[in-house]
Amino acid sequence: MKNWNFRLKAGVAILALFLILGMIFPFFYTGNPIEWGTYPKNLKPSADHWFGTTNLGQDTFWLLAKSLQNSFVIGLLVAFFATVIGALLGLIAGFKGGFIDRLITLMTDSFIVIPSLPILILLGTMLKGRASLLYIAVVLIVFNWPWPARQLRAMALSLRERDFINTAVFSGSGTFKIIVKEIFPFVAGWSLANFVNTILVAIGSESGLAVIGMSSNEKATLGTMIYWANQHQAMLAGRWWWIGSPVIAIALIFIALFLTMTGYQQYSALRRGK
């Protein structure tokens, strides 16, 4: 870690803070943070309620912690499966070529040209704001796997002409073994950067849908916090702790992910240069 650049250190530090708040803190709360009427309404921040309470009688701090947990679960779930599916299909297409390459490329381009936002809004409207978080994650995976697939296909097309790939083919290694052991190490850094970027896209997409009431408004996420704050006029009433905490959290998470991604790229470039 001592060789990490400032961007990477700052990004990981901020991200670790929010991961602890979202993935660990909720387990210390015995009640249900989204339940209405648990506390007096509209209390200002104090020692008993660090971020005050909402107009619905919820403790804003614990609600934020639960919202972070659900938002991170969506982000990590979408990023993992979209990256794995995209990387696997892209590397297979680039390495095998021929009919398989054309088929996967057709699928990839077809999903890329379909606008995801109108589809997500349509699905949210049909489900009347009651879509489960898992359902939203699956839809986001469907629209996010083509991007890494297209990029990694181009990389695989170049790598398959290398001498060590020909050696592996002539030695009798199978396609999957060659992709995993010979090609993937060369694209692992890019895949990690795509993974981090997809977390950002997934959290941003879910938050945007929730703000306009098209996500799971019965679940606690950063987007639904903003949705309910808007519904109860938190901004006009001066209850900044309710609407401000999820907005600031989203902004800081985006900054942390950006710093982590660019910092890691700088770190990897420096290591390759040695």
Automatic annotation (TrEMBL):
**Does the keyword Flavoprotein belong to this entry?**
no
Cellular compartments per GO CC: plasma membrane
Q: Where is the ABC transmembrane type-1 domain?
A: 68-261
Q: Which GO terms describe its biological process?
A: transmembrane transport
Q: Which SUPFAM superfamilies match?
A: MetI-like (SSF161098)
UniProt topology in membrane: Multi-pass membrane protein
Q: Which UniProt keywords apply?
A: Membrane, Transmembrane, Transmembrane helix, Transport
Q: Which InterPro entries does the entry mention?
A: MetI-like, MetI-like_sf
- List where in the cell it is found: Cell membrane; Membrane
Q: Where are the transmembrane segments?
A: 12-29, 72-91, 103-123, 129-147, 183-204, 240-264
| One Pfam short name | BPD_transp_1
Q: Which domain of life is it from?
A: Bacteria
Family membership, please give it: Belongs to the binding-protein-dependent transport system permease family.
| Name this polypeptide is given | Peptide/nickel transport system permease protein
